[in-house]
Design brief:
The structure is a single chain. The chain is an alpha/beta fold and 108 residues long. The protein is built from 3 helices and 6 strands; from the N terminus they run ββββαβαβα.
């Protein structure tokens, strides 16, 4: 399963990685996309980064992000798709239309 996360603020991609109130999770199993939102335990970028790593996220769609947070996420094997914006529905459409490349996912 591929797990994609998008930090949100007021149902839109958060403009800054560390400034968000909930997390959109998209789970893709190769044929079905499951969507859930969860409240974030904190608004600290390091806490959010560790949380994403801990719940098995493989890709993050976000607005702006400091390079050291991006580098840390990348070192954990999480692909960062930065400088994005839009509503929750737009993010879901991007995934469904392949704008966020599903072909890089390989089931293990």
């Amino acid at each position: 399963m591929l797990r994609i996360a998008a930090p949100l603020m007021k149902k839109r991609v958060a403009p800054y990685f560390g400034c968000c109130d909930e997390l959109l999770l998209l789970d893709w199993d190769g044929g079905t996309l499951r969507r859930t939102c969860q409240a974030l335990p904190a608004d600290d970028p390091w806490h959010i980064s560790r949380h994403l790593s801990g719940i098995g996220v493989q890709k993050v769609v976000c607005g702006g992000i400091w390079s050291f947070h991006k580098d840390w996420l990348s070192a954990q094997g999480i692909e960062v798709i930065e400088n994005q914006r839009g509503s929750v529905e737009e993010v879901v459409r991007w995934v469904l239309r392949g704008r966020i490349n599903m072909l890089t996912y390989r089931a293990v």
